[in-house]
Write a structure and sequence with these properties.
This protein is mainly beta and 239 residues long. Helix content is 8%, strand content 44%. The strands form 3 sheets. Strands 1, 4, 5, 6, 7, 8, 11 and 12 form an 8-stranded antiparallel sheet that branches. A two-stranded antiparallel sheet has the order 2-3.
Length: 239
């Protein structure tokens, strides 16, 4: 048990001292993620009757453009950058099956906007929006070590499904010229869903060094077999 906890702590410190971090650069997946980031065990009493409501909010803003690793800084100087604002309210309900097993049902509520310059000569920016329920997650979790004897630290693994409950064809009005607007699907970066069923794997963990100091973390990965959902992006002909 002690060896397992030491390995777990070492993994966290390796992440903290790493001098190179590689991140996913696609803004289209930012609304899907682990709804739980466990800092401790729930109460063991009355395990079968235990329910838990989790509410969290995430705000995401993007305005920088990259080609590979090279940032296109001229976009900021020319005021041609695309600006995304994504607000995500994550709601999840968890049910304990026993001291180790639990399942969770979670879904996000999204309010998104995308600001960009028109391509027909107008200097003013225009915005498109999306609002609604995103893709739902159904996940089963298991504590890998007995919570009764692993109170200082533990590791929880999760396996689940991401369901295509979010509208992946959401539409808003785009300016075509100075006097005409057309109803089109919004950019995939602010769509409410991706239209596919995904498989999710997750790891939550914590370790308390003392009653005043501890660490916790969450790792999340999704596999989505569907490569395309058939919704046009209009990026090749945005206006």
């Amino acid at each position: 048990m002690r060896q397992s906890i030491l390995i777990f702590i070492s993994a966290f410190f390796i992440l903290f001292i790493s001098n190179k971090v590689t991140a996913q650069g696609c803004v289209a997946i930012r609304t899907t993620g682990g709804s739980l980031c466990t800092m401790q065990h729930p109460e063991e009493k009355n395990a079968s009757d235990s329910w838990e409501l989790n509410i969290s909010n995430r705000y995401f803003n993007s305005f920088r453009h990259y080609v590979g690793t090279a940032e296109q800084k001229q976009r900021l100087d020319q005021h041609t950058e695309v600006i995304n604002h994504v607000n995500t309210l994550n709601l999840s309900i968890s049910k304990k099956i026993n001291d180790r097993l639990s399942f969770s049902v979670g879904f996000p509520i999204l309010a998104n906007s995308r600001s960009q310059r028109a391509n027909f000569g107008a200097k003013d920016r225009y915005q498109t929006h999306s609002f609604g329920i995103g893709d739902m997650n159904l996940t089963v979790y298991r504590w890998m070590f007995d919570p009764a004897t692993s109170r200082k630290g533990n590791l929880q693994l999760g396996l689940g499904l991401k369901l295509p409950t979010g509208d992946y064809k959401y539409q808003d009005y785009f300016p075509i010229n100075d006097s005409t607007k057309q109803l089109r699907s919004v950019d995939q970066s602010i769509q409410l869903g991706d239209g596919g069923t995904g498989i999710t794997v997750e790891a939550n963990g914590f370790y308390n060094f003392s009653s005043l100091f501890g660490i916790y973390g969450n790792l999340f990965y999704m596999l989505n077999p569907r490569e395309q959902n058939g919704v046009p992006t209009f990026r090749s002909n945005p206006n």
